[in-house]
Write a structure and sequence with these properties.
- It is built from 5 helices and 4 strands; from the N terminus they run βααββαβαα.
- With 177 residues, it is an alpha+beta fold.
- It has one domain: Transposase IS200-like (Alpha-Beta Plaits), CATH 3.30.70.1290.
- Strands 2-3-1-4 form a 4-stranded antiparallel beta sheet, with helices on one face.
- Helix 2 crosses helix 3.
Length: 177
């Protein structure tokens, strides 16, 4: 299936895995519009380019590019998580709290990885787009609605049938987180 042809240049491209504290929850896809809004607001506050993303029920993967000279990705994730959490509270969602009263929605840490070159960029984008198949949510990449894959198809970067029907090959991409 080969990696997507990516436009990599010397910049700060980062791969992230961010996970809910309750891995059985489906809050992310259940409130995907609030999550998308949280990303939009955080990008206005602290700019970054969202190169690729997949939102799964209990975790998400992204590749983002930070502005030159800016390495504050933790601050961006605090804003994204904070805006999403606030939107859930306003919606009346029943969220668990830790013994100290803090929300227990997100895992405290996240996985980050600095992408090294064009091939590494392409492999991480492929991993992101294939992830819903890997986890058994769909048989084909194009069937998952919570992914940047559709944008890649619209922009002519990938064909709609990219990766074919690979349901039987679930797990062929190594888990990075």
């Amino acid at each position: 299936m080969g990696p997507v042809s990516a436009k990599f240049c010397p910049r700060r491209d980062l791969f992230f895995t961010v996970t809910l504290a309750d891995r059985r929850s489906e809050i992310l896809v259940g409130h995907v519009d609030a999550l998308r809004s949280a990303f939009r607001v955080a990008r206005k506050e602290r700019p970054f380019a969202l190169e690729a993303i997949v939102i799964l029920p209990d975790h998400l993967h992204t590749v983002m590019t930070l502005p030159v000279g800016d390495s504050d990705f933790p601050g961006r994730w605090r804003r994204i998580k904070g805006h999403f959490s606030s939107a859930l509270i306003k919606s009346g969602a029943n969220l668990k709290r830790a013994p100290n009263g803090d929300l227990a929605l997100w895992q405290r840490r996240f996985w980050e990885y600095t992408i090294t070159d064009e091939q590494d960029f392409a492999q991480h984008v492929d991993y992101i787009h294939f992830n819903p198949v890997k986890h058994g949510f769909v048989q084909r990449v194009c069937q998952w609605p919570y992914s940047s894959f559709g944008r890649f198809v619209r922009e002519g970067l990938l064909p709609e049938d990219w990766a074919g029907d690979l349901g039987e090959l679930r797990g062929s991409f190594g888990e990075r987180a």
